[in-house]
Amino acid sequence: MILLNRRPEHRQPLVAADASALGLAGVDEAERFLSHRQNHAETPLHALPALAAELGVGSLHLKDEGLRLGLGSFKALGGSYAVIRLVLEEASKRLGRTVDVTELDESDVRAIAAGMTFVCATDGNHGRSVAQGAGLVGARSVVFVHSGVSDERVAAIARFGAEIVRVDGGYDHSVRQAAEVAAARGWTVVSDTSWPGYERIPGLVMQGYTVIVREALRHLPKPPTHVFLQAGVGGFAAAIAGHLAIVLGEDRPMVTVVEPARAACIFATAEAGRPVKIPHEEPTVMAMLECYEASPVAWRILSRVGDAFMTVEEEDAVAVMNRLARPAGDDPAIVSGESGGAGLVGLVRAAASPDTRAALGLDAYSRVLVINTEGATDPGRYAELVGMAPEDVLLQTA
């Protein structure tokens, strides 16, 4: 299913708060913070000429976040960045001076961080990022996980020292419970979704994601004409699309937001014209996108810079995982987790439909960018779906 954006605010400027979070100054700050991370390195941008030819587009590039900061996901850029920013702000307030990221290891800063507790809800990847950020600064982290999060993903969060709290129900239940417990105990919620009165911290999380765009634009031969972005609550898609709109202006690409048909809260929001919650909570193989309530801040951005919204099916996601693992021609082999290739799934589905190609202006001259948002964050599940261990996939291009 595809829905073009007919909202009156479509292609209007971002509101001031969103433009500030996602603009040039914001990405400068995020990159500066990253430069102080010991394992920071730009993630690769792969050209996929064989797949581009199959799909009938001029070029296809994939930005691979499966290697980001040792966490295997783009989420490494959001939660940990927000945690570090919040610790420095608290230290600045208590010490009566501006505290810079270069001072994170100073004893007085670490003493302040040690008294702070950061809490979040997660499908897996965001929790690891928050836990990693807390560990870097010496703070405590508590991560709420719902019943659909695999034991392997929970163990990966716990390895960073987080306290794990299991929650019955789905992701949205865990978000609410995390917020309630944090409010009662004076903890700081670091969420990648927003709600009334809680917008700034999700804005910091999204600000971290803008680094992906800056890195990609540095290495693309020309800016993309089309971008397909996966969405859970919408924060990632909003960050990427918002920054592209700010940087490229009228030359910005056509942005298509892609979701699992079973958890399409942004699609439903686009239909309704306001943030909505899907009444059912049906699980999807695209587990990191298993969200049923749109982030209001993300929708505020996407209503302006999202050009189309579409849904994809379970079997399509698995097919793309396998296609990336077994490439044609000179395309590299890429490890993409269950949710990582959802944007590419959208492109594959769009390219196969003459009507959708026409609606999106997709043709033999299109320059398409997609982002692999995660690698094999659950290696056992990956091997089950692809029939190869992730390390064996990578050996093909070693």
TrEMBL record:
<dbReference type="GO" id="GO:0030170">
    <property type="term" value="F:pyridoxal phosphate binding"/>
</dbReference>
<feature type="domain" description="Tryptophan synthase beta chain-like PALP">
    <location>
        <begin position="38"/>
        <end position="372"/>
    </location>
</feature>
<dbReference type="InterPro" id="IPR036052">
    <property type="entry name" value="TrpB-like_PALP_sf"/>
</dbReference>
<protein>
    <submittedName>
        <fullName>Diaminopropionate ammonia-lyase</fullName>
        <ecNumber>4.3.1.15</ecNumber>
    </submittedName>
</protein>
<keyword id="KW-0663">Pyridoxal phosphate</keyword>
<keyword id="KW-0456">Lyase</keyword>
<dbReference type="InterPro" id="IPR010081">
    <property type="entry name" value="DiNH2opropionate_NH3_lyase"/>
</dbReference>
<dbReference type="Pfam" id="PF00291">
    <property type="entry name" value="PALP"/>
</dbReference>
<dbReference type="GO" id="GO:0008838">
    <property type="term" value="F:diaminopropionate ammonia-lyase activity"/>
</dbReference>
<dbReference type="InterPro" id="IPR001926">
    <property type="entry name" value="TrpB-like_PALP"/>
</dbReference>
